[in-house]
Amino acid sequence: MKNKVILLASDQLGKGEKELGEGILETFFTILKQKEELPKAVFCMNSGVFTLTERSLVSLHLKELESKGVDVLACKTCVDYYEVQEQLTAGKISSMADFIELASKYEVLTLS
């Protein structure tokens, strides 16, 4: 994972029941944060920005990844669209230009 950037494009993993998708996504990050090799960054866009708020248990895991040196980034356009800037508990506001820069240097793993 160390040469990867995770593009988190949703607040759930997979299509289907919302609760199941949210649980699967939380499990993914629970396991990921325990690994020795961590990704370079997690870039949250679209409804993925909700994972950076208290509304999502994933935010706790993303905060922990941040404390371990992983860049956790939120798409500014998406944060503005969903009006969640004041609700962010993890990550920092970033831009699509920053994501493109990361994508040019690292392999992208898309979760949606």
List keywords for this structure.
single chain; 112 residues; alpha/beta; Hypothetical Protein Ychn, Chain: A; five-stranded parallel sheet; 4 helices; 38% helix; DsrEFH-like
Describe the structure.
The protein is α/β, with parallel strands linked by helices. A five-stranded parallel β-sheet has the order 4-3-2-1-5, with helices on both faces. β3 (71-75), α3 and β4 (92-94) form a beta-alpha-beta unit. Helix content is 38%, strand content 20%. It starts with a strand and ends with a strand. The radius of gyration is 13 Å and the shape is globular. The chain has a single domain, classed as DsrEFH-like (Hypothetical Protein Ychn, Chain: A, 3-Layer(aba) Sandwich). This is Transcriptional regulator. It comes from Mesobacillus campisalis. InterPro entries: DsrEFH-like, Sulphur_relay_DsrE/F-like.
